[in-house]
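Fold this complex.
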Amino acid sequence: MTTLTAQTPQVYNVFIRATPEQIWDAITKSEFTQQYFYGARIDVRGDRRFSAIGELEWDDEVLESDPPRKLVHGWVSGYDSDMAAEEASRVTWEIEAQDGGITKLTVVHDQLEGAPKTAENVAGGWMYILSGLKTLLETGKPLAG
Amino acid sequence: MQYLTGDYLVTYHRSVTDDDRVFKALADPTRRFLLDRLFKRDGRTLTELESGLEMTRFGVMKHLRVLEDANLVVTRRSGREKLHFLNPVPIRLIHDRWIDKYTEHRVAALADLKHELEESA
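Structure:
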């Protein structure tokens, strides 16, 4: 997605047959994230969000935490040295219960002005992650491949 | 019928109707044009989206409503403006759940073949 401008927020949305609490756990505990988040082990503890992929480890600031409704944290692409040098952007997770046991999950990735490479990189990544999260929560299994 | 087969069919049925909405939304050139516009630049107002389209504002709104129902377009308020964002997740879901299932092995075989040909070239 080379035509995306870095200034534009990115907004993603998915409906998942799961409770808000299940979604909250799935985005804040590594036992879940490693099954759909490119293998990343992510744990939200206190005011930090810890990430690890293989030997790489980094952490971001948690800006707002209102379980199981809203999580806002900084984003530095610690998985790539070029992108890791860019300024921190911001990710907001909004979790809203709907009728019929369905929960709406919205991800907004913004404040990307100082992170053009990250903006381009995550554009394809978020839909893969959210598709994988939905599959994991609804079937109990990660996406194949 | 659904009672006999338990929750599985109900769950399956729901995901099928979600997919139906996506396919229906995509089965129209104006709506694909609107998605392409958002792909080029995301987060646009209705006024920006309707410019250059030979259609009434009401007509464009109707198309955007179909795209929103299919969850292909998400709107957010920014001050006084309502901005429209492309949400590619439903297309990815169809890809992951349907297309992967049927093409995985063939695509893998072709990728292997390409790799071998390039190695030996």
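Chain B has a mean pLDDT of 83.
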